[in-house]
Amino acid sequence: MTLTTSTEIIKKQYKIADLTLQINYTTDLDLEKLLPTFRDFEWYTQGEEAAIQVNLSTDKAPEVADLGVLRSDLSISWGDRFCFYEQEKGYITTIVNEQGDGMWYLYSERNFAQSTIYIPQSSAYEQSTVICWMLMMLFGQAALLHEVIMIHGSVINLNGQGIVFLGKSGTGKSTHSRLWLSHIPETSLLNDDNPAIRIKEDGVLIYGTPWSGKTPCYKNESIVLKAFVRLQQAPENKFDLMPGIKGFIAVLPSCTAIRWNKDLFAEMNTTLEKVISKVQVGFLKCLPDQAAAELCHERIFDSAVK
Fold first, then answer.
1. 114 pairs with which residues across the strands?
2. In this structure, how many other beta carbons lie within 10 angstroms of the beta carbon of residue 16?
3. CA distances to 119, 121, 261 from 90, in Å
4. Residue 36 backbone phi and psi in degrees, to 5
5. Confidence of residue 45 (pLDDT cuts 50, 70, 90)
6. pLDDT on residue 6
7. Which helix or strand (DSSP H or E) is residue 27 part of?
8. Around Cβ 105, how many Cβ atoms within 10 Å?
9. What is the pLDDT of residue 275?
10. Which partner from 51, 120, 266, 289 sits 20 to 30 angstroms from 142, CA to CA?
11. In what order do the strands lie in the sheet with 42-43?
């Protein structure tokens, strides 16, 4: 869907994981205030068609007689205010606004390369939060056709090499990253929630993104991906390598993809198989202590471990 308005349309592009995201919006929206975490990702180019295009509209969403097949009516972020529908040619996402008297609508093509977000009356905070979340969801799906996978994890940068900590919410991904920052010299945080990975000619790279959860870390940087490490809380520290299919299974739950779109899900699996063939995967049962970080570091960078 395109913007149908007499108001001037502004186009702004962002480069995320070497993919161009273009946002088309009208002058009644202040994109700088709505998307503060995107500032370092702004990208200016001439004649390059963006891989992903999103329209932002304050107009009333067009009425649809049949929203489609309800695939989900619950969200970690939005609870029961959220619904996700599948249609023959695309998807519709709805979120009830914070006052309960309006509805957010997101209309997307099946490959998510073209989408329109319809913004209801809502606070500036809600506008920023919902738009940022919807852009994350759109990017995570559309990127799959370009061999880019968004990962739910926390990433440490050690001298240009990235280690991604994976696990269920509450497992201690951010805690383990902080342990590395405190006890492993020359480490820094690349992203604390939603980095992106991509296969390049010189290896697998991991990228910072505008989405970093509760930790303000929005770096437009990329580094070589050294390892994935799935975490599990335990009464003692133990590290095991997980080669082949074991590694694939360990990483898969942390990848962003909707299971209802078989084409995109297949693309993700194909890309992940290639990534796992090039990047080691570890499984760390651990306490939240210095010894866990040191054991993990030792096993990942042990020259005998390939």
1. 53
2. 25
3. 19, 25, 10
4. -65, -30
5. confident
6. 53
7. none
8. 19
9. 97
10. 120
11. 42-43, 9-16, 19-26, 52-57, 114-118, 103-109, 90-96, 82-86, 69-72
Nearest to 169 by CA among 150, 157, 153: 153
Ramachandran quadrant class, 301 (left: phi over 0; alpha: psi -120 to 50; beta: rest): alpha
Q: Report d(CA 71, CA 134) in Å as an integer.
A: 17
3-state secondary structure of 306: coil
- Spatial contact of 109 and 89, defined as CB atoms under 8 Å apart: yes
- Residue 167 above 90 pLDDT? yes
Mean pLDDT along residues 157-172: 94
C-alpha to C-alpha distance for 1 and 109, rounded to whole angstroms: 9
User: Contact, 58 vs 73, CB < 8 A?
Assistant: no
Decide if pLDDT at 293 tops 90: yes
Mean pLDDT of the chain, nearest integer: 93
Kindly give, in sequence order, each residue whose CB lies less than 8 Å from that of residue 257, ignoring residues fewer than 6 positions away.
140, 141, 144, 149, 264, 265, 268
300: alpha, beta or left, given left = phi > 0 and alpha = psi -120 to 50? Answer: alpha
Query: What digits encode the pLDDT tens for the residues 253-286?
Result: 999 988 889 999 999 999 999 999 999 999 999 9
Q: Which domains does the chain have, with CATH numbers?
A: 9-146 (no CATH), 149-301 (3.90.228.20)
pLDDT digits (tens, 9 = 90+) for 177-208: 999 999 999 999 999 999 999 999 888 999 99
**Residue where the block lists tokens 């329209």:** 55
| Rg, Å, the chain Cα set | 20
Length of the chain: 306
**Pairing of the two strands 280-286 and 222-233:** parallel
The alpha carbon of 229 is separated from its chain's Cα centroid by a whole number of angstroms, namely 18
Contact 151, 194 (CB under 8 A): yes
Packed helices 290-301 and 173-183: angle between N→C axes, nearest 10 degrees: 80
Percent of the chain topping pLDDT 90: 87
CA distance 150 to 140: 6
